[in-house]
Amino acid sequence: MTTVTDIDPRGMQHCETTALGVLLRHQGLDLSEPMLFGLGSGLSFIYWDSKNMDFPFLGGRVKPFVLTTNLAAGLGLDLQVQETTSPRKAWENVAAPLSTDRPVGLQLDSYYLDYFSAKVHFGGHVVAMYGYDDHDAYLVDTDQQGGAVSTSLTSLAQARAARGPMAAKHRSFTLTAPKNSPSPQDRIIPAITACADSFLNPPIANLGYRGIEKAGKLVRTWLQRTDNPQRDLPQAALLMEKAGTGGALFRNLYRDFLAECAQLLDNPHLRTGHNLYTEAALLWTEVAALLTKAGESGNPQPLTQAATLLHDLSHLEREAMQTLSRLESSAQGG
Question: What is the rounded distance in angstroms from the CA atom of residue 151 to the CA atom of residue 140?
Answer without folding.
Answer: 11
